[in-house]
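Form 7-S
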Amino acid sequence: MNKSILLGRLTKNPEIKLSQKNNTKVANFTLAVNRKYVAPGEERKADFINIVAYSKLAEFVEKYLKQGLQICVCGRIQTRTYEDNNGQKRYITEIIAEEIDFADSFKKLEPDESMLNSSIPTNDNSTQTENIDDSVLASDDLPF
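Output:
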């Protein structure tokens, strides 16, 4: 089984391209994921993980994700190789996103109405729907 679940913040706005082979939308972005252990007297360290989303999920990324936003990404680890200009073999490890969920509080995000009932597409043509009650958004005594 090849499954990764990451929680982190986007380091910059996603880069959106069209694939050369079949003109499919592709989103690339980097997620800063904090390490759990912090050595005494040191600052928390983070790993910077490359994420790739395709098709409808890439359209979602283009529309809603921006630098600094905290998200949860579920996907699979994939490695690939290529030869650089000097003939050196290079390896790339990245996460191919299958699901993306918001992890920031909505008060920080200040969402527009379209985000409150958005459907988050995945690569397998299924959707995960986020329905958020307005009374929950207005409550100041949430436990988180």
